[in-house]
Batch of 2 targets.
Target 1
Amino acid sequence: MTEARKVSESRVETIHMIRPNHMNAAGRLFGGMLMQWLDEVAGMVAMRHTRSNVITASVDNLRFIHGAYNGEVVVIIGRVTYVGNTSLEVRVDTYVEHLENGQRHPINRAYFTMVALDENDRPRKVPGLILETDAERAEWEAAQKRREMRMKRKEEGF
């Protein structure tokens, strides 16, 4: 049987306190800083799932829903949503967590396509994904549609 892992086995959650060096000129979290953190989380998720080195192939649906400000706590959660032959999709959600009540409000979502690499930096087969919940199955189906759109854009030169 082919090797496969559960979504929960590679889930990653990181927390950052927004500090002055993370801010842009408008007084909000610099989008480039957030993108770096998102890419790191996506990479860690993919490495945990594949147990190999990975590279970022693309980022889709990078949506900035709301800003984050100095002193706020940002929580970034990544998980595998889909696996192909040598690539996998990782969903990364970002929240501001309010320390007074623990509530989280979404500020960003992105989908990363990561490619697993062998010891010679060539694409290698990735383990399958075990879907345990209806939400995981729904995310898989949505990921298939996003993959089809990525392939169509690639064919059309976008």
Target 2
Amino acid sequence: MTLEKPEIEPAEGPAPTELVIEDVIVGDGAEAVAGGNVTVHYVGVDFENGEQFDSSWDRGESISFPLNGLIQGWQEGIPGMKVGGRRKLTIPPEMAYGTSAALHPLGGRTLVFMIDLIDA
């Protein structure tokens, strides 16, 4: 099954203050575990304006990494996901890049990621 780059619909209402996990497609492969290594394709957009800030799709290749090296929203939002699945994570600033734009360009922003799990 080859998925195409997802579109993320503009958000409505106020930004959530907690991590929101939504399974768009439930996979049937191996399950991602906390602290494990994963291979994903993803798109990230700003919750407020819907502007894309990052996409592995646009680089033309998936990316692999250990979960424990990522932002908290990914560390908590990916475990339990199964290979072949697509999950939407809406991540408040405290679980992303912090509350200050002085420390990171995405600081203070609520972020939305659509993640396709390719391998776990």
